[in-house]
Amino acid sequence: MNILIIGAAGMIGQKLTKRLCSHGKLDGAAITQLTLVDAVAPIAPTCDSIIISTQVRDLCAPSVATSLVSLRPDVIFHLAAIVSGEAELDMRKGYQINLDGTRYLLEAIRDEHELDGYCPKLIFTSSIAVYGAPFDNTISDDFHLTPLTSYGTQKAMCELLLADYNRRGIVHGIGLRLPTICVRPGKPNAAASGFFSGIVREPINGQSAVLPVVDTVRHWFASPRTAIDFLEHATTLNPDQIGPRCNMNLPGLCASVAEQIESLRNVIGGDAVARIHREPDDQIASIVAGWPEQFDATRAIALGFRAEQSFDDIIKVYLEDDWQKR
Amino acid sequence: MNILIIGAAGMIGQKLTKRLCSHGKLDGAAITQLTLVDAVAPIAPTCDSIIISTQVRDLCAPSVATSLVSLRPDVIFHLAAIVSGEAELDMRKGYQINLDGTRYLLEAIRDEHELDGYCPKLIFTSSIAVYGAPFDNTISDDFHLTPLTSYGTQKAMCELLLADYNRRGIVHGIGLRLPTICVRPGKPNAAASGFFSGIVREPINGQSAVLPVVDTVRHWFASPRTAIDFLEHATTLNPDQIGPRCNMNLPGLCASVAEQIESLRNVIGGDAVARIHREPDDQIASIVAGWPEQFDATRAIALGFRAEQSFDDIIKVYLEDDWQKR
């Protein structure tokens, strides 16, 4: 099996690469070839059984997608995007990378499809940012797409494109609306959502963390490990199972900040909790108030997707997968 | 007031042009300048009070939108699109005209906006094709966008773009999901939906008409006159009334084919009804089965949009506006 990962240098891309190299197979077939692509140099792990190549490429030029698809990957993971904050600040760049990049990829697949029926599996990482407030308490798959950011708009437009190409049989596509990934490894960042990981990660690492919102705030989480499980599992689904509505909410854990803190106390201890400093920030609080809290992922669960059941488990995944490896 | 109509040569574009020339004003202001643009030559009515110019232009070239927006219209009606059947047959052309054309227009507006805050009203004609079966019995504004045609996909993508540009304050946009326009004047066409108009129009004109579906089929209608009312009324709404969810279902009349036929009997007579020949067509029946029947347009009604209350009225509009003028 020949696999292409676009956006391979990001946190999810790196973890997916490691997982694929560790398993050596995907959807029951041995992986023979793995191409890692990103705008910055992806790191290729050593792996005897798989031919791994890396490319530093920018998907904004249509010829790049043509060249990548000419490798005839059986499965394409399309993870590349600029993040919400950057897409909001630089409108042109956001549409170029997050919309045009995906469109060029689909068009390149169509060109190959028209030659001989080539039809790869395409796993696209979408986002819960396709939804915008006001929300129902629980957001179901059939809630309308009313993003309130350019990033969410671009993801929603890509979902529509993917569904049209999927319906036409050009690609076996699936769009996964990932929960907020928590605990993100690495350093704190400036994202408004950063504190959800920070209030866990920093105290575990003996550092102080700022909590800018009240602890009744709820959000929708899955661990990085679960995100990789989602990507792997998506490749095992056949088109009949997915049908024309190929974009879906994934399961996650709805937890309040108070529940996050209680889990930190349970798993690590009171000393860690004491490193969290409450510094209310109205701007962050108002951004977070526009975010969804909980989803009905009945359909994805019926398709076999699984997420954590408690925030304790999410912290344990961080300890096992990322903390020890610092 | 300076007005631009893109897609001015189509049925709706022509009727809108006539209405604007007849009223001489829009949203309370005198119309001074009217620019009619289409890929085929628009017909400019004579009108003493308005400077009317016509342009034969193809919106697929980005420079065309730049040139049109440099005229600094206060209101832009963007009606241009290739129809569902053509967009399905020619995927590339559909995305070029129905998606890229709209995007170039919005980007051209953004370029002018960045110069000095220019922010026109943009009335965009969307379609109930943004929805795809399976449906709820009645489709509300918050039903998800799952189009089952490339045309519907393109309209849904444009709605998302419009909402993002609207949210950013670059344009005062509103997307109107028009009901099926009935009775369409003119000759029968090959569209699967053509019979909804044909079984009324042809018998009125003394010709026979084919009914390819059972008469329990229901659909969602508004007259051409009502469609023009919608477009005019949309220009009177201010941004605060519209808010970030700027795309909406419009009111219409839910009528069965049997009710259409009864109205034909009421308004015209039994001789006209006798000209309808039932010739079941499984292919058309299956296409029509994937179409929505009824919408909840509570929001648009609250905003002052109004449609016909009976199919008798829809037939009378045809008699008044189109039939006598043959």
Task: Write up this protein.
The structure is a homodimer of 326-residue chains. Chain A is of the alpha/beta class and 326 residues long. Chain A folds into two domains: 206 residues, NAD(P)-binding Rossmann-like Domain (Rossmann fold, 3-Layer(aba) Sandwich); 84 residues, Alpha-Beta Complex (UDP-galactose 4-epimerase, domain 1). In chain A, 42% of the residues lie in helices and 18% in strands. Chain A has 13 helices and 14 strands. In chain A, strand 2 and strand 3 form a beta hairpin. The longest helix of chain A is centred in the N-terminal third of the chain and has 26 residues. Chain A is globular, with a radius of gyration of 19 Å. The model of chain A has no long low-confidence stretch (mean pLDDT 95). Chains A and B meet through helix 5 of A and helix 5 of B.
Helical content band of chain A? 40-55%
Quaternary form: homodimer
Report the CATH C-level class of the largest domain in chain A: Alpha Beta
The rounded Rg of chain A comes to 19 Å
- Considering residues with a beta carbon less than 8 A from a beta carbon on another chain, report the largest interface and each chain's count: A-B, 23 and 23 residues
| Alpha plus pi helix count of chain A | 13
The overall average pLDDT of chain A, rounded, is 95
Class from helix and strand fractions of chain A: alpha/beta
Q: Sheet bearing the most strands of chain A, described?
A: 7 strands, parallel
CATH homologous superfamily heading of the largest domain in chain A: NAD(P)-binding Rossmann-like Domain
| Amino- and carboxy-terminal Cα gap of chain A | 32 Å
Q: Which strand order does the major sheet of chain A show?
A: 5-4-1-6-7-8-12
* Architecture (CATH level 2) name of the largest domain in chain A: 3-Layer(aba) Sandwich
The percent range for strand residues of chain A is: 15-25%
Choose one word for the global shape of chain A.
globular
Order of helices and strands of chain A: EHEEEEHEHHEHEEHEEHHEEHHEHHH
